[in-house]
Structure formats: C-alpha cells, structure tokens
Amino acid sequence: MTLARAVEVTRRYGDKLALDRVSFDVEAGELVGLLGPNGAGKSTLVNLLTGIRRPTSGRVELFGADPRVPSARRELGVTPQETGLPASLRVGEVVDFVSAHYDNPLPKGELLERFGLSDLVRRQTGGLSGGEKRRVAVALAFVGRPRMIFLDEPTTGLDVQARRMLWDGIRSYSAEGGTVVLTSHYLEEIEALARRVVVIGGGRVLADDTVGAVRGLVAVRRVSLTVRAPLPELSGVTGVEREGDRVHLLTGDADQLVRDLVTYEIGFHDLEVRPTSLEEAFLALTREPSPV
Ligand SMILES: Nc1ncnc2c1ncn2[C@@H]1O[C@H](COP(=O)(O)OP(=O)(O)OP(=O)(O)O)[C@@H](O)[C@H]1O
C-alpha cells in the first residue's frame, strides 16, 4: 500500500529549480533514506509530501489524498529541519501538550524511555542543550502513534551516543510496522537504518535502490598513490584529490587504472586500492567527470 507519492513533481523557487520531475513512492512499512548533498532538494521533497509547500507542477499524495488538506495529515508525524520549543515549559509539559491533540497518544513514560529522555522530564526546554532539544523535537513526532513519519536530518548536531538513542527509537517504531522517511547527510545513518536509499542531486532522483545496490551501481574505487610528476590524462577517472605528493583517484575500474599507470611508466609508490564510502559513491554519481 502506497502511503506517500510524488508523480513527476517539479518545484521552482523563482528562477531556482529545486525539484525537476521527481517521482517517488513510499510503501507502508518502509524505512527510506533520502541522501544527497546540500541543496539537492531533499527538504523540498519532504515539504511537498507533508503539505508544507505546493508543487509547481506534478502531483503529490499522502495517504491517497492531497497533503495540503489537514485531514490527510492526521496520521502523520514530522520533525522538520528547524524546530522551536516553548522555552519555559518542561519537557514533560511539552509532551503532555502535544499528546492532548491525539485520541490515543503514546504514554509519556514510554515515549521518553524510547528516546532516552526520561531524565529530562522535569527540565525546562529553554535550558536544554542543542542536542537535547533536537531529541525532544524528534520524539514529539512519534507522540500520536502516526502511521508515517518524516524526519528531516534528525540527528544533525547530535553526538554519537545521542544519535544512537534516536536510532533506537526510530528502529523500534519501524519494527512495529511504522513507515519512515528520513533525510540525512550521515551515510552511516542511512546505512544503519534504511533498507532503501534514494539519492537526490540537483533536484533529480539519481538512484533508488538498496544501499548495497547503490554502492554497486557506481562501484567506485579509491586508488591512492604517491607521485611527484603530474599525471597524464587517465581514462575512467571521475575524481581527483591531491594532498602534496599523495594523489587519490576515484574510478569505476581500478584494475584498468593500475594497468594504465604501469603502461605510462609513472613512477608511483605506496599504491592503495580500497572501496569507497557511500559518500564518495554518491559524490561520483553527482559529479561531472574532472580532468586529472
Ligand atoms: N524558500 C526558498 N526560496 C528560494 N530557494 C529555496 C527555498 N527553499 C529551498 N530553496 C533552494 O532549493 C534548492 C533545494 O533546497 P532544499 O532545502 O530542498 O535542499 P536539501 O537537499 O534539503 O539541502 P540541505 O541538505 O542543505 O538541507 C536549494 O538550491 C535551495 O537554495
């Protein structure tokens, strides 16, 4: 069953094309990661699917209805990128306030426990650290037992321990059949949580598959070598980084690249070939080939 859908959606802000004919479906029970560099269009897609903004053209649906209609959002939980909490209220009071809007909210203790917030229940939100505020803001999206949750960069600014606590909360919601769409710059986050990753770049969907398949799709290897002389043009190289004499080359065919280095009699040493991180893979997907 499809819970959220974008069909050939385009969104412009003045002259800026933020989304360019994007189609995207989310099925019930899925945990989907939207991955992309700054300005890729992730938040815009989330904002369209959650009814905060309207597409310039194309169609969006939430639970089969127009997300701009308030009743369509009744079973939705959202944590946008920026959130504000009433500074003078205690964490427990904020949870009570949000809970009062729902027929069957999660019990306060259970919610706070799930997100590792039990110790903060009596603290005023104005006195919380940035990371603690963020955890409260994310937890609030779960109060009404939504069928579906959108989390826009949920763990930005959190330390490792706080991030793991949030992941646990998201995982347990997902394990109970909840549907999650999250955007992230943290590749480990997508890999740790999501079964499916949608790579967005320049307002377009560049890949929509499992994390493993997306990595396989680009199959980028990082070939590092120490070399003093400038390198000739090498075919198949999609990215180059230099740190003094150390050069890192990104390529889809490391075997051929190494053969070429030998053929050109390049005096290199300390050769190292390793798989790329997902980040390097998606940069290779979004980047124009650059000359060596
Ligand atoms: N209200 C707006 N007015 C003008 N341009 C906007 C507006 N909102 C977004 N944009 C532009 O649209 C493009 C997509 O932005 P969006 O926030 O969707 O990207 P993102 O992938 O979420 O980025 P980030 O990871 O930095 O949050 C960017 O170029 C951005 O500057």
From TrEMBL:
This is ABC transporter ATP-binding protein. It comes from the Bacteria. It is found in: Cell membrane. It holds the Pfam family ABC_tran. The keyword Hydrolase does not apply. Residues 4-227 form the ABC transporter domain. Keywords: Antibiotic resistance, ATP-binding, Nucleotide-binding, Transport. SMART domains: AAA (SM00382). Its main location: membrane. It comes from Paractinoplanes pyxinae. It is a peripheral membrane protein. GO terms for molecular function: ATP binding. Coiled coil: none annotated. InterPro entries: AAA+_ATPase, ABC_transporter-like_ATP-bd, ABC_transporter-like_CS, ABC_transporter_ATP-binding, P-loop_NTPase.
